[in-house]
Amino acid sequence: MKNLLTYKLRMEIICIFEKRHCEDALWAIKFHENMPDEFNRLFGLWNDHEYVSAFCEAHEDKLQSVFGQGVTVNDAVDEIIDEAVLLERQLYYFFRYKKLQEIFRPLHNNVYMLHALQQSKAAPILKKRSPALRIYALRMSANTFIITGGAIKMTRTMWEMEHLQKELRKLNMAVTWLKENGLHSSESLNDF
After folding, report:
1. Rounded to an integer, what distance in angstroms lies between the CA atom of residue 126 and that of residue 109?
2. What is the pTM of this model?
3. SS3 label, residue 137
4. What distance in Å separates the CA atoms of residue 90 and residue 114, rounded to the nearest whole number?
5. How far is Cα 146 from Cα 184, in angstroms, rounded to an integer?
6. What are 22-50's pLDDT values in tens digits?
7. Where are the alpha helices (DSSP H) in 32-185?
8. How far apart are CA 75 and CA 72, in angstroms?
């Protein structure tokens, strides 16, 4: 059944980190057959100096809002790549100690109730400034999330930049796909 669903909708769920069963796992959506899953796609891009440099040059007018006065494109590139390394380590750490819920927060800041298929976000935990990187995911349980995408975020809201709006659409598309396939909790992933 998994192959039929994957082929028909061209979406697949890939396990990134897993403990016992699927109740403790970090998953990622693979939207297209010939593309990597979202976890590997994101960290591939965020560790690619050329990609990050082109992004920072294209959005140079927004760099100060994240990195402060006097930041150069090269400084921003270095900081984003450092954030990517840190975020990947932090995801593994929080997963290992069954605390993914501490790094993933509800996507909307005014939401306080947690539930399955909740849109969520994660960012590296920094001391000196707000992070530029975000991972977007769906919460299945306290220690199980499905990554649907991510972005370099340089604005206060996601509505201010097209690539962030695309991430919202991917979150919604993934929720619909999961519901259509009866995947509404971490337990339901066991059978998938």
Report:
1. 18
2. 0.90
3. strand
4. 21
5. 11
6. 568 899 999 988 899 999 999 999 999 99
7. 38-46, 49-58, 63-67, 73-96, 100-103, 162-180
8. 5
Cα–Cα distance, 33 to 190 (Å, whole number): 22
Domains contained in the chain, number: 1
- Tally the residues of the chain: 192
Tell me which residue range forms the domain holding 87: 2-189
Return the closest-CA partner of residue 138 out of 173, 87, 109: 173
Helix axes 38-46, 73-96, angle to 10 degrees: 140
Tokens found for residue 105: 């927060």
Q: Is 122 exposed, middle or buried (0-12, 13-18, 19+ CB in 10 A)?
A: buried
Ordered alpha helix ranges (H), 68-161: 73-96, 100-103
> Measuring CA to CA, how many Å separate 34 from each of 79, 108, 149, 187?
30, 32, 16, 28
